[in-house]
Design brief:
Distance between the termini: 53 Å
Strand order of the largest sheet: 3-2-1-4-5-6
Number of helices: 16
Oligomer: single chain
Strand content: 5-15%
Structural class: alpha/beta
CATH topology of the largest domain: Rossmann fold
Radius of gyration: 22 Å
Number of strands: 12
CATH class of the largest domain: Alpha Beta
Shape: globular
Amino acid sequence: MLDWARDALWDRAAVPALRALGGASRTGRALGQRQTRILVLSYEEQLGTAVVATPLFRALRQALPDAEIDVAATPLSAAVLAHSPLVDRILVTPHPRNRPLAALGRLRRQAGGPYDWLLTTLSARCRSVGMLALAVPAERRGGHGVAGTLRHFDAPVAFDLAASMIENNLRVAAVLGGPAAGIEPAVHADAAAAERMRHLLAEGGVEPARPRAVLVAQTSGTQTKDWYPDRMARVVDLLAERHGARAIFVGTAEGESATEAVRRLAASPTVSLVGRTSVAELAALFAMSDVVVALDTGAMHVARAVGVPTVVIASAFEPQHPWLPLDVPSCTVIGRPSIACSPCYQSFCAHRACLADISADEVAAAADALLARFPPSAEARAARLARCIA
């Protein structure tokens, strides 16, 4: 009953006012008669969601190579896109859920006139982002949203539960003729980020000629996605024994205790860069490494985006197809999706049977196979880094 009342209030009071703010006269001009101006609202709040939104920008650029593509973003989304050659301007604002008037005011001041298209990513499934979409001047609107928003879009895009998050974002680009599938995420860096990573690796005693394995042993707090410290430590030691690989740990400062638990159990030397990398520096580090072993967390998406061989240790917390790189040649996902209790969507699990069944030997064997298919070399690192900095 409360949901019905809220939606009724939305349609009768808020929507007309927002449409009056954001309405723009339609010129009837076809796309391509002059430079098309596009604004994408990309208010992703987690690293993974921000990375899986990046294929949308390549698809838009392919569809309209000469368009001006602006992005309104959270600081996190802005960090993911900071060095991207696919967007023209990044307009950082407060999240409209927290400060809606400040977000709207900043966008209207920076817009420089109405946009031809305003598009929304999956972040607009948050009602406040949809409200902002109606209030920013634009001739046409398309993308994701909640019911109250989508009824007022020229090209609404329904969320497809059977599709991946990447595919759902790409369906927004299809509104303007872009490809609806087949584009991988991309996170770019700059030369300064690469140079800082070289400095930190040298400081940690990581020799350039030695294979590098980057490990992500912490998640963003979901207990059902955590693995076992002793098993991750065993993977570290197996990679050192079999490949001479030096283990480098990354993650957030808040989750450092999980990383340190693994490092204490590992017999071989390790380096920790936990809490010491920006998004661009993380991308550069992954590009400059040979293999990544990661839990299902935001850093894994960055590893996928730069194309480094990656083993993903995945719980059966949710279906695999929305988030995980299932058909990516450089990625191997290890999980138990067919376990009887999957998907549980629970933040706590007493038995974690889906993860308990994954052994260190299985993870190390997957890393062995990737290293055989993509042999470590200075040339391979340099090629990944060049693509990352392009």
